[in-house]
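User: Can you help me understand a structure? I only have the sequence.
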Amino acid sequence: METPAAPHSPAADPATPVTTVTVTVNSPDEMRELGLALAKRLHPGDLVMLTGELGAGKTTLTRGLGEGLGVRGAVTSPTFVIARVHPPLAEGPALVHVDAYRLGGGLDEMEDLDLDVSLPDSVVVVEWGDGKVEELSDDRLHVLIDRATGDTTDEVRVVTLHGIGERWGRAGLASLTESLTG
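Assistant: Let's start by predicting it. Here is the structure, written out as tokens:
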């Protein structure tokens, strides 16, 4: 199996505004809480790209997003089905959860998933989406999850959120850390 491409610069165009926030997450519960807090800032039409090694916490974060969005069904890794759609239980957007790990090409190879059709009415979360889905939206949230180094436990993660485009400049990402500690 081919290894997915390495993460690249969050914004290819230097004129594109980028808002960056870094959060240290100490446990899977805190990763889920980050997803809950982030869900409050999501709207239909949002594209969220998740990057991190296997076991970094991408699906755990997405579980929190699903819980915060109030969607139906257990959010699990869509590795073998490629994509899962979780409809809302009440008002709000559906969650489309995609795992692009096994997809090699760019957006052309993902065309059968009809993400461009789903995006306006849903929150689309794509694991391993680097180099594959950026063309879907000029405004996107790129979440990089890294294992912390040094004297830390294995559960510690450093999560860097790059809000790309005007929409994320207004999304209140800077206050995200306050909502986690307060």
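Now, to help you interpret it: The longest strand covers residues 18-25. Strands lie at 18-25, 47-52, 83-86, 94-99, 122-127, 140-147, 157-164. Let me know which part you'd like to focus on.
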